[in-house]
Structure formats: C-alpha cells, structure tokens
C-alpha cells in the first residue's frame, strides 16, 4: 500500500476569494503542471546548459516516488498445534511477533523475509519490466547467474575506469557453530569483488583477498573472522587500500586488518592487523572526506562506544589522533556519509546477527561532538522500522548529481545459512527537519532529517547518471 509521506509538508491549493475550486479543476491543473514539469525537464536535459535548474527539477520530480511511504501488512500465522490446558496455565501464551517469525527458520513467513530462487533478481535474464529494479531481500544474481557474495560490504566508485566496485565478505561456505555458545559462522573464504556500470548488474571479479588454508598463525586463516571490508583509493600513492575487521573465532582479537593493491580488482596484499590506537576494535568502516583525509570509525570498549580518527596520508595506518564518540550508546555497524558540510552516520544496536533498530547521528565536525537524531526508517510497518527492515546497515553510497540522495546498503543476515544472507538496498534522503531538537542548539535543529524509505521494489531515477 502506498500513501503520502507524512513527513512532507501538505500541499494546499489556494482559490480566489469567493470562487470555488471543483475537484476536477484541481486534478486537471495538477496534470497540466506535471506535464509542464516533465516537458521542462526534457528540454533542460537536451539543452545541456543551466545545470542548476536541471538538477533541481530532476531531483524534485525523479525522487518523489522514492519518498512515498510504502506500508506492509503481514499477518502473523496462528501458532502451530494446540497447547494442553495445563501447559497454558504454567506458561501463559506470549503472542508471537514478526521478529520471532523472522528468527524462526521454520516460520510459515520464511518466504516473506527470504524469498526463494524463483524470485531472484537476474540481470542477464530480465524478461519483464524489472530491469534496474532493486527488490530488497530477494536473491540477487551476478552476471553469471550466481548469488552475489559481498556481505558487510561497501562500494567504491573508481574514477579512472568509471566503474563501481562492490567489496564484501564472500560467505559461500557452510554455516556452523565453532562451539555451543559461539555465534554462527562461515570460515573465511575471502573478500569478494563485483564491478558494475549501473549499480545493478554486477560482474564477479573474483576473490580479491583470499583466506589462508594452512598457516594457522595467519590473520587470514580460514578459522578466523574477516568482516566488513571497505576499499578507498589513495590519489597520492595510486593505491587501493582495504581496511577490514580481523578477529579470531571468539571475537577476542578485536583488530583491524589492512591490505593494498594497484588495481581495484586486486589481488590485494595483506599487510598486517593491529588494534587501532591500542583499543579493541570490532565493527568498523572507513570514510574518505572531500579533502582526501580518510578516517576510521570502529566500535570499541566492548562495543559500548565508537572511536573515530584520521588515517595517515598513505591510508595505511592510524595517526595518534582519536576521539571517543557515542559513549555508552552501544552502537555498531557504522556507515558514515556527508551532505552540505554536515557528517551523518547510521549505526545499529549490538545484537549479533539478529536485526535491531538503526539510529541516525549527525555532527558538524567529523571528530564530533556527534548527536543522535533517531530512527531513520520510514514505511513498512512498526516492526520493519524497529528492525531496520530486518537488516543491518553496512554502507551509505552518495548518488553523485542528486544532492541529498544516497543508497542505504544493509545486510539481512540469515544466521541459519549465512551464505544465503540477503541485501537490502533502499533510498536514503537527507532533508526536512530532524525529529528531535538537539541538546545544545536551544531547540533549533541545525541538521536535516535522514530518512530511509522502505520499498518492495524501486529503481534509481533514470536520469541520475547524466547528472554527474
Ligand atoms: C554483528 C556484526 C556482524 C557480525 C555479527 C556476528 O553484530 O555487526 O558484522 O560480527 O555480529 O555475530
């Protein structure tokens, strides 16, 4: 079901005093206005000049449908089997929630969260009108017809080859528990890399950083953990630099790993791991600012806070500068982005593979102070919003040419079979007033709202690539 966005200002039609506007007149004026806008955007596309007007018009019209609020109504199936009256007395029935259903591998709703192969997104066999459409949660084939393996990933736009590269955990192996209380895991296979010209059809470029089979002392030994790899390009050295979370099977090493390559498609040479600034570090990301300075952001002090600090000029190490942020807030899976000089970040709570509520944060300086703005999710239903659409963020990718528009990239983890974890890509828009007035601004929010809109199916506006 689709309805108007309650976060957008209502549109009012003004009639001359004394006159009455019939509904059909209003509708026809609207149609006329839309036609005018459409023609205008065509003319400005072809004309090629007057970039500002073109940008404004395109953003306004092309993104409107992505800001529609799409509701989900999912019926929770009745409990299986009858309970004996005695059992009912002993333990009163707790009503099943959608999250219980999500976590139950045998749920009748399994297909809602993990649709089967038949519905897979297949760029090479796209018979209907699904071309370039994202379907959050569906299996997504690469150009060879295999499910994409790039979990906990990030995207690099490579200027020299004008190509997008998607790097992530290649998890195409069996899921198991190393011991009873351990988290579900897949042995390290490596970092997968996919390339694309349109952010939709992805070619498998292979495993660009491979696991080590034999040497147990190596960080990349298959029994260890390699998560959330991110790659940035260093203009000064001409190198592609990868940072990742490196851990042992029990998550006690809590370190970052660094690898380097001359090419976006690798192979990457693994340099070493370290505890950044001497602190424990688990979920992490890196962010390259407009001035070329790159930063690392990682969950630390047993995930109770985040740390942020600039990297060295060659991006191969941290400097001595570091700030503790969001102290005591227990956030992880940071994904940082910037708009109009303000820094934003989406984080998740700390519940392992189980989904939880995302929060948006903002800061005027990347080193803080950072303020928490609230849950950015819009649409779906309450449970969708409280679970980040049953997913956990990993990256926010800016759509160049469409200021304020981003793609929020998240993982819908499947702890029963991690290789079958899905991707949730959704439009993220920065605009409108923030929900909560911020502490030190006397109630005047200086930051815009960050909104991630749920859609079962959506696509990037067709004109956006021409706007670069
Ligand atoms: C999550 C984390 C994932 C992975 C998982 C293991 O909290 O974001 O990257 O480490 O825990 O349980």
From TrEMBL:
Residues 68-95 are annotated as: Disordered. The chain crosses the membrane at residues 21-40. Keywords: Glycosidase, Hydrolase, Membrane, Transmembrane, Transmembrane helix. One of its GO terms (biological process) is carbohydrate metabolic process. Residues 80-94 have a biased composition (Basic residues). GO terms for molecular function: hydrolase activity, hydrolyzing O-glycosyl compounds. InterPro entries: Glyco_hydro_43, Glyco_hydro_beta-prop_sf. PANTHER family: GLYCOSYL HYDROLASE 43 FAMILY MEMBER (PTHR22925), GLYCOSYL HYDROLASE FAMILY PROTEIN 43 (PTHR22925:SF3). Belongs to the glycosyl hydrolase 43 family. This is Glycosyl hydrolase family 43 protein. It comes from Salix brachista.
């Amino acid at each position: 079901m689709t309805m108007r966005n309650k976060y957008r200002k209502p549109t009012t039609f003004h009639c001359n005093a004394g006159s009455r506007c019939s509904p059909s007149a209003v509708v026809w004026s609207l149609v006329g206005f839309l036609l005018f806008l459409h023609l205008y955007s065509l003319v400005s596309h072809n004309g090629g000049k007057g970039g500002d007007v073109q940008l404004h018009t395109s953003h306004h019209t092309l993104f409107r449908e992505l800001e529609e609020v799409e509701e989900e109504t999912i019926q929770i199936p009745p409990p299986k089997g009858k309970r004996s009256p005695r059992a009912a007395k002993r333990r009163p029935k707790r009503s099943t929630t959608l999250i219980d259903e999500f976590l139950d591998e045998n749920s009748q709703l399994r297909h809602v969260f993990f649709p089967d192969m038949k519905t897979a997104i297949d760029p090479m066999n796209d018979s209907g009108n699904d071309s370039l459409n994202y379907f959050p949660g569906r299996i997504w084939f690469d150009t060879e017809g295999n499910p994409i393996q790039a979990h906990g990933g990030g995207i690099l736009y490579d200027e020299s080859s004008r190509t997008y590269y998607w790097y992530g955990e290649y998890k195409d192996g069996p899921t198991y528990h190393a011991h009873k209380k351990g988290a579900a895991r897949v042995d390290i296979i490596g970092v997968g890399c996919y390339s694309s010209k349109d952010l939709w059809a992805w070619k498998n470029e292979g495993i660009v950083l491979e696991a080590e089979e034999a040497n147990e002392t190596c960080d990349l030994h298959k029994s260890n953990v390699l998560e959330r790899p991110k790659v940035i390009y260093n203009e000064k050295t001409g190198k592609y630099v990868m940072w990742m979370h490196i851990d042992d099977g029990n998550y006690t090493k809590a370190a970052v790993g660094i690898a380097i390559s001359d090419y976006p498609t690798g192979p990457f040479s693994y340099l070493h791991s370290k505890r950044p600034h001497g602190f424990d570090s688990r979920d992490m990301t890196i962010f390259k600012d407009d001035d070329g300075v790159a930063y690392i952001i990682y969950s630390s002090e047993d995930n109770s806070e985040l740390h942020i600090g600039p990297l060295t000029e060659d991006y191969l190490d941290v400097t001595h500068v570091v700030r503790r942020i969001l102290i005591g807030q227990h956030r992880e899976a940071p994904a940082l982005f910037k708009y109009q000089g303000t820094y934003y970040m989406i984080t998740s709570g700390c519940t392992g593979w189980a989904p939880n509520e995302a929060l948006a944060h903002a800061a005027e300086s990347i080193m803080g102070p950072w303020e928490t703005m609230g849950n950015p999710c819009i649409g779906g239903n309450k449970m969708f919003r409280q679970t980040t659409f049953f997913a956990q963020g990993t990256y926010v990718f800016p759509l160049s040419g469409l200021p304020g528009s981003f793609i929020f990239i998240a993982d819908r983890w499947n702890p029963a079979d991690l290789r079958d974890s899905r991707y949730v890509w959704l439009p993220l828009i920065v605009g409108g007033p923030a929900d909560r007035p911020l502490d030190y601004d006397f109630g005047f929010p200086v930051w815009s709202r960050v909104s991630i809109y749920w859609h079962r199916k959506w696509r990037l506006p067709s004109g956006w690539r021409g706007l670069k």
